């Protein structure tokens, strides 16, 4: 229960939405200071210490906890705009979030929310404003973009509530965070599924330094970012394994490696087919960077954040090679992964085994690879039909 502030009392303690007790007071510099605690007594003790320090002239601004946005002064609170709070929130969060998350949050707010409501005062934004913004964005950009922008905006305003700037968040659109699939699985498969001969043709059409990328996607089911993030120490050719520990992600100023994969399931060890060992041995000798931590697919001449190949460049190279190999121009690196996972399913892998190879944590996603093609359905029908061949006509 929130105990608040009594007349004549120094500071206040309130129960935050997170369930923690938030202690706040205004210092001698007219700045508001706050800290959260798991227990009320600890919050009250912190206030008592601050009050004593002020009384005896020993007070100094407390060190703000890591990752907390700087709290505005009392006068500033009345004028604080959404854009200003957004900048403070992003700056504070950069110490806690991965580089990719920070980049995604910044771009979603900058592109999809701040142009509409960024100049409004934080406390003036209403549920009606948010509902109207979300509806416009969904019509203009579709369910995928609107959902991620909504979730980031909701986090932004939740932080304002947590910091005591708002009594409640106006970001409460019913179904705003609901996932709406934009692609429908087909009987023929979701995307292109290549035959072994087509995979070989694609690899041969690639620049020599990138041919192994095709094989790792089509035979091991690795995501493009996972392939580009591989280092020599991740490949154990004697044991025929690839350890997927990190990925290369797109950030401002180039590529930046991160060890934070999407889920625990993404961090995995994948078996290498025996036929890939000599291909990778040759690639490591000729194209990979030296040293245990050397990139397996370095960008020629690249250094620092520019060391990794950029995913967009790789997509263009895959498309150009596909045309040269006589394959669909819209072939993507994901189609290579999709080819692998579909063949694993066709080989009789269980759902758990598909999830292990793919690095999936959601069975529903893994189940999309258990679809059947028309050729496969025909083959199964013929196999079953052969059981009845000795019966003569079935008419």
Automatic annotation (TrEMBL):
Q: Which region ranges are annotated with the description Disordered?
A: 1-26, 58-77, 293-312
Residue intervals of the Core-binding (CB) domain: 80-161
Q: InterPro entries from the entry?
A: CB, DNA_brk_join_enz, Integrase-like_cat_sf, Integrase_catalytic, Integrase_recombinase_N, Phage_int_M, Phage_Integrase, Phage_L5_Integrase_N
Gene Ontology process terms (BP): DNA integration; DNA recombination
Q: Which GO terms describe its molecular function?
A: DNA binding
Query: What does the UniProt keyword field contain?
Result: DNA integration, DNA recombination, DNA-binding
Domain Tyr recombinase positions: 189-382
Superkingdom of this protein's organism: Bacteria
Spell out the family assignment given in the record's similarity comment: Belongs to the 'phage' integrase family.
Q: What is this protein called?
A: Site-specific integrase
Protein source organism: Brevibacterium luteolum
Q: Could you read off the lineage of the organism from its UniProt record?
A: Bacteria, Bacillati, Actinomycetota, Actinomycetes, Micrococcales
